[in-house]
Amino acid sequence: MSKKQIFNSVIWFRTGMVGVFLLSLILRFWGLDRFNTLVFDEVYFAKFGNNYLTHTPFFNAHPPLSQYIIGIGIWLGSHVPFWQEPVNGLAGSLLSPWSYRWVNALTGSFIPLVVAAIAYQLSHRRSFAFLAGLFTASDGIFLVESRYALNNIYIVIFGLLGQWFLLLALENQYQRRSFWLVLAGISFGASVGTKWNGLWFLLGAYLIWIVGWGIHWLHSVFQQESIVSRKDNFNQITTPEPALATVQTPLQKLTQLNIFQMLFYLGIIPALVYSIIWIPHLQLDTRYGFIEVHRQILNFHLHMGGNSPTVHPYCAAWYKWPLLTRPMAYYYQTAQSVNDPLPVLGPNLPSAAGKVIYDVHAMGNPVLWWTGVAAMVFLVGMLLTKIVLPWIKYQRLSVPATLSVDTWIALYLVINYAANLLPWVKVTRCVFIYHYMCAVVFVFLAIAWFVDQCLHSYYRQLRAVGVTITFLILAAFVFWMPIYLGLPLSANAYKLRMLFNSWI
């Protein structure tokens, strides 16, 4: 590439990412105060955030960081000279819905940029990074969660920041590496300080580090054995995979981090940050100390009931999440016409009595999720092939001297996806589709990687596949957008979007 081509590529990439951010920002802030009520778990988190401002003690079943942030948002939002109407007193004070939602909308707008930053750091491919950001901005459940005072946005963004800072640390040395590792530890601690399952982002970091050292150790062992016993086959066993790019991924430097660094930066620092997060809450609610409040939280979750519709109509076991078989309605009301006042609290009208349906559905972009799962399965197959084929050829496990960038990317995505999904297998309490948000971001990265490979293929058919998948993802986002934003729909238009009975 000439300098001019590189310059133009950078300009187009930056312009594209600005466009992705503006799209995210507009969709999250548009009509943010349309429903002048508490939507779904805003009955907890908006109230809890306001309780810190009114000095009202309360018990919370999750760590308090997201409620602090919502509380700060309420305080700031209540002091701006606009968006102060309409108001309600449902959170314990007379507040505009905008005041307890805007900070979530702003935070959620940055998630596509962080995902794009991770993609770029993994590969240094701008096209991959742009697609990752665009696809993340085109998802429904992230849009819905960003538009209301809920807490899942924070566990995701802090966990992703921890992953990004770790990748940045691997690309630096000495003091700069320590700086990024400290930020990674703080971010992971903040993720756990939002919800305990933020630990799975940290688990993913440890697992990829262990795999990095495992590959290094296996290669060293095989190399020594080859020198001693089969010198003639040395070149066959250690021949590097053909890399698709000359750049290296930071993941190739995982063995530069030793156990003491990992335990300090990604062990002690997150634990310290998590502990500090609790201080304001424990000063407000003096009924429980640090240990006792954790016992109370654990007891709450253990007694929530089994993962069955008899406990909650939207309970959905972990294996239902990837295929999107049981999304959930956060808000559902009907009205006679679009000219009627927007319905707020109160019992739903009978389905036959309302001609207009307002539904806010916590549902992913179906095309994005389904193609993303297919891409993740493809990556798993690719990794297994790289293990099985050398076994068949050499009758032994073989580790190349240098893994390609795309092999490292596949390892990173598969390991982090598994780390954020598989721990839920053993969870017996009622769980919901939004618990998949931490894992599904790696699905977005997987389909972005696959589409990027297609678009750069020498084969026209594969390039057409990449373009088609991108178009279908964007078209699906537009098609299902009314149930993400809670726009008025006729009964027929609503049913058209509910492809399966289990979606309702």
Automatic annotation (TrEMBL):
E.C. number, please? 2.4.1.-
**Entry's Gene Ontology molecular function annotations:** dolichyl-phosphate-mannose-protein mannosyltransferase activity
The main location is: membrane
Q: Does the keyword Phosphoprotein apply?
A: no
- Tell me the protein family, please: Belongs to the glycosyltransferase 39 family.
Q: Where are the transmembrane segments?
A: 12-31, 102-120, 127-144, 150-170, 177-193, 199-222, 262-280, 367-389, 401-419, 431-452, 464-487
Matching InterPro entries: ArnT-like_N, PMT-like, PMT_4TMC
Q: Which domain of life is it from?
A: Bacteria
How this chain sits in the membrane, per its record, is: Multi-pass membrane protein
Taking every annotated instance into account, which residue ranges of this chain make up the domain ArnT-like N-terminal?
A: 20-274
This protein's UniProt keywords = Cell membrane, Glycosyltransferase, Membrane, Transferase, Transmembrane, Transmembrane helix
Q: Where in the cell is it found?
A: Cell membrane; Endomembrane system
Keyword Transmembrane helix part of the UniProt annotation = yes
Q: What PANTHER family has UniProt attached to this entry? A: DOLICHYL-PHOSPHATE-MANNOSE--PROTEIN MANNOSYLTRANSFERASE, PROTEIN O-MANNOSYL-TRANSFERASE 2
UniProt-recorded name of the protein: Polyprenol-phosphate-mannose--protein mannosyltransferase
